[in-house]
Design a protein that fits this description.
The protein has about 325 residues and is α/β, with parallel strands linked by helices. It contains twelve helices and eight strands. The chain has an eight-stranded mixed beta sheet. Helix 1 links the parallel strand 1 and strand 2. Helix 5 packs antiparallel against helix 7 and helix 9 crosses helix 12. It is globular, with a radius of gyration of 20 Å. The N and C termini lie far apart (about 50 Å).
Amino acid sequence: MTPPPQVAVVLAAYQAASTIDAALASVAAQTRPPAEVVVVDDASTDATAAAARRWADALALRVESRAANGGPGAARRQAVALAGAPLVAVLDADDCWLPHHLEVLTTRLPGPGWIVSARARDWRPGHHPSPPVTPSPRMPVRSRDRLARVVVPSPERQPAAIVRGNFVFTGALFWRADYERAGGYRPEAAGAEDWDLWIRMIRAGCRVRDAGPVTVLYRRAAGSLSTSLGAYRAALAVLDQARAGCTTAEERRAWHAARREHRARLALAEAFDLARSGQRGSRRRAARALAGPPAVAARAAALVVAPGPAARRRDRLAPA
């Protein structure tokens, strides 16, 4: 029998000394071991690189440190370039894989031209995760589980659907040749580099398959308004880049809907920022978010009525 293709695990790490041991331990525990593990330390000032190198006896490990911080996209791009295996699996430095992760994803990978999107559970160490939820395209699921609300569309719908929103989880498995054909991670898409990559890979002909069972623990950090602001601005920048590639009416409708939603979410985040700091203009900024999805519009309306109380309520409900 032909042996299955080898897998390279790529991991971009920044200030991850407290989490990278757990991440690499989960790789070492895989029922299907990877051929290589490439860690790129993105100019951390803590002991991230030293912590990673401690796993050299348990893994076929290579650790490289960047001289200057370039963001996850630049670090992942370097890690993939250093790897040699035909399959690439991405792991974030603060997440963990269940032992069957690589076995499940490689089994679900039909062949070249396909991406397998992992399914993850939101996780905070010391907290019990909520029960797993089965998503449905007709009945949205209200859950904090990562991807619980996301259904991978049918292959023919994916070119438009990926413009409407990212349905591929960061911890995906893909063919290196497909990745290179699409141009790889673009450092200039910092903050939305994954979505940017999936848009270009799908437009280059790749299609996405759901892994099925949960195989990733996605570490949830405390809510950060600045993170939200940066993420929405990055998403809008990716959409601006993606506009030229919209070749069908369905893709153009998806683009307009996504841009409208992200603009509303950005306006809402900016309004919360202004309200929290007591600056003027929060009501005017919140009014711009009233055209967003129902949940966004409802929070925007609360800000328009009473900016201070609405901001304090948001902070109380943010993940700890």
